[in-house]
């Protein structure tokens, strides 16, 4: 089975990089990503390139999408960009034409946008370009944000909510149709597997696999054993949804 990788980063020094809390990652171009998957005997059907905090609001790296379309015409790739909530409708459309399928807000690492401003932007971006909104949340604030978050037409939460305190709220959000990324396991302070099983039980369409490659700022990075763990916990139908179909439908078929 091919994977659809709903969360990975490309760190290409041809394009702008900036420090976030003093951190600038090592280079990790798409060729390194492809080589790593090949070394694990994993094949992808495409994926979502996620803007990192170290890329700021620069979108020069979107050139990579054009290159991938030419190199891998049988795959489908999109980008999720860091976008200011003040971006104009014309800005949103211009990014969409370059392959951007949504905006990411990293509340965990100090993005200054308020959740109300994000929700207002989300509605406008959805009406203009059908965009999704992706949040790396501050777990301590997640429960309080639910009334506003559930107003967002298309929403996903990164890295299983990051912290144990967020788990009950994740269950509530999944039940309301929010996507949860099964990614970033090295960033968590809890065992994700029982949580993933329950999330899948609550909403079989909620979970979207992401490798989080190259795994910046974490000790435990994605490894092939993570895929084997899915195999041990989920039947073939559930695996197909989690590892491919849910994300492919979300990003490519927009449903």
UniProtKB/TrEMBL annotation:
GO terms for molecular function: hydrolase activity. PANTHER family: BARREL METAL-DEPENDENT HYDROLASE, PUTATIVE (AFU_ORTHOLOGUE AFUA_1G16240)-RELATED. This is Amidohydrolase-related domain-containing protein. Gene3D superfamilies: Metal-dependent hydrolases. InterPro entries: Amidohydro-rel (IPR006680), Aro_Compnd_Degr_Hydrolases (IPR052358), Metal_Hydrolase (IPR032466). Residues 5-251 form the Amidohydrolase-related domain. It comes from Secundilactobacillus collinoides (Lactobacillus collinoides).
